[in-house]
Write a structure and sequence with these properties.
This protein has 13 helices and 13 strands. By secondary structure, it is α/β, with parallel strands linked by helices. It has a seven-stranded parallel beta sheet with strand order 3-2-1-4-5-6-11, sandwiched between helices. It has a three-stranded mixed beta sheet with strand order 7-10-12. A three-stranded mixed beta sheet has the order 8-9-13.
């Protein structure tokens, strides 16, 4: 017996459950949907309901729900009566691909059990299959994405849907009725420029933007702009059922990126150190090989993104130039921390 979802177009606001709502991606989606309380009741899932970010969402009208992707019962409680689920999973918290996959499967199973009408998932291509190298934080999302597709088509054998992960059998799935889903595949996040890929200091007022593009271009967008894209999808959900949306606002070369930094920070000099994939593979920080594989995938030409579709879904999505103008303070702070 399912948890029960009673959505009908005449019932009023639809209940949207947002996972990762205190993070960048889920937070962007929650904040955007909270702007339309007559259309959506936003239920934000977190393990830290007393945290500052959760309190801010609650102040804007969100219902904060404690749940853990590792605990099925808590997920069913969080999804009870929901119409829509936005799911994003987080590899970097534990740096364990298998755990991330299982947590994603738990959420999908709970959504099906509770009769959720539409699942939107932050997915990815299977990088290992494309370039022959592990990229744990993307391959995990590919496995979850494939699971969603298999559950949507019960006639397909679901045994061992990803050979790089523990075997998943039909006993793991529960309800194998078809579901409505939309997959989002995101490009490089501009927010990386004030976090994991912030420019690093070489000497006084000189910074390196260390991305191993090796002459290729990089698809980018701001995570904040994904909120409007999800709102656009939910305005015409049937149009996007079963679709994979490959998103990007623009494609940039290293020359574009460095020049843009230099225009916005006239008190600093930014350079391209011309690092290579094989250089990043040798870096001594956790996840360096996964990130190197991600950039090799970007270079492969197989990470196809659709700028025209992205701009249709969000005509006001920020270019890197506009994003840097609006986020200069955050980048400035990150640069001070790099000193």
């Amino acid at each position: 017996m399912g948890c029960g979802s009673s959505f009908d177009a005449s019932d009023g606001p639809r209940t949207v459950v947002v996972f990762g709502s205190t993070g960048l991606l889920g937070g962007a989606i929650a904040r955007r949907l909270l702007q339309e309380p007559f259309l959506y009741k936003v239920r934000c899932v977190t393990r830290r309901s007393s945290g500052e970010k959760a309190r801010e969402l609650a102040e804007h009208g969100a219902v904060i729900v404690n749940a853990d992707l590792g605990e099925t019962k808590s997920l069913e409680k969080a999804l009870e009566g929901a119409d829509i689920m936005f799911l994003t999973t987080h590899y970097w918290e534990e740096k364990n691909k298998e755990k991330e996959v299982i947590k994603g499967l738990n959420a999908i199973d709970a959504a099906i059990q509770c009769g959720v009408k539409h699942i939107i998932f932050n997915g990815s291509e299977n990088v290992k299959k494309i370039i022959g190298k592990e990229c744990s934080h993307l391959d995990s999302k590919s496995a979850i994405e494939e699971y969603i597709r298999e559950v949507d088509n019960p006639s397909v054998d679901v045994t061992g849907i990803n050979n790089s992960l523990p075997e998943i059998t039909t006993n793991d799935i529960g309800n194998t009725t078809g579901i409505n889903f939309t997959i989002l595949r995101l490009p490089f996040w501009l927010e990386n420029f004030y976090s994991v890929f912030k420019p690093h200091k070489l000497k006084h007022a000189v910074y390196a933007v260390a991305l191993p593009l090796e002459g290729s271009e990089l698809d980018v967008m701001s995570v904040e702009d994904v909120g409007e894209i999800v709102a656009s999808i939910l305005r015409r959900p049937r149009q996007y059922y079963g679709k994979t949306l490959n998103l990007s606002v623009e494609s940039l070369s290293m020359e574009n990126i460095v020049d843009t930094f230099n225009r916005h920070f006239d008190n600093r000099k930014f350079t391209d150190p011309k690092i290579r994939i094989k250089d990043m593979e040798k870096f001594q920080f956790p996840g360096s090989k996964d990130l190197a594989a991600m950039f090799e995938f970007y270079q492969s030409g197989q990470a196809v993104r659709d700028i025209k579709l992205t701009r249709k879904l969000n005509p006001h999505a920020l270019t890197f130039d506009r994003w840097l103008s609006e986020n200069r303070d955050k980048v400035e702070e990150a640069l001070r921390e790099a000193n």
